[in-house]
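Journal club side-thread
Mid-discussion, someone asked how the predicted structure for our own chain would compare to the paper's figures. Pasting it here so we can look after the session.
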Amino acid sequence: MKKILAPLVAAVSLAALLMTPLAAMAQAYPVKPIIIVNPFGAGGALDQLARNLAQKMTESMGQNVLVENRTGAGGNIGADFVAKSAPDGYILVMGSSATHGINPSLYGTRMPFDAIKDFTPVSVSVVQKNVLVVNAAVPANSVKELIALGKAQPGKLSFGSAGTGTSQHLSGELFKSLAGIDMIHIPYKGSAAAMTDLLGGQITMSFVDIPTAITHIKAGKLRALAVTSAQPSPALPDVLPLAQQGLATFDLKAWYGVLAPANTPRAIVLKLNAEITKALTSPDLRDKLLGMGMEPIALTPEQSGVYISAEIDRWAQVIRLSGARID
């Protein structure tokens, strides 16, 4: 019996030894700064969320959590960098409905990574509604008037977005399709850059994230005509949804969340999820995000995986309906 058990005991002992470094690493984590990659430009909603989370996590974890912007290709450059990073919990991405919802269908075989296989979901953190805003000088005070203006001037109106393949871009393409008007899409490297040109009158409108636009709306520099979700936003309760202004099937919203490279140890993923959940449920940050137009949801890693898979399917349908494509 001893001769039979000896190899088994040895195998178990060897497995335990092999697992020890991973377990020890997860227990000590983090021992150096954590980087959250924002694949879009500074100043937009994604950037604001990432920096607020980083500050809270830094305070709680006793280790610096930094935000690094790596922009381009509708968020694919930054996300691809993270996908190819070491799965040790020190390089994360602030993913979104663009990088892990829209792009898989929009880019198709040109995608540099697999949005499911190359990542470990940590936390789908917030959902957010976009708002249709026009420069204050645009002669349209309602969605109906904007559509009439577009039909009277085909190809003359323009809309800016945070980049090709973002929820802002797809919102504009769906609006074009359902309203039956021709508009020019102008992609930027982030919401803040698009906002600069919108305020300057270089573009007509934008389906922008509420955090980027809300200050300018309240200051009267922009006119808010509608939100893109089926329900109003608590941050802009007086602004009606597009679905209630003649475009009955219009219901789009964005989401943001943290993902790690595939094969990141589960203990590290759970620790990160707990820290993010603690940050999002803290009264001060929760109130701040709600005031900006972001609604915290803080899903578990498992819930986040299911959510992301469903979003990829949902956005594929929107892309087919809108006819959007990457040239």
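Post-session note: The chain has two domains: 31-128+254-322, 130-244.
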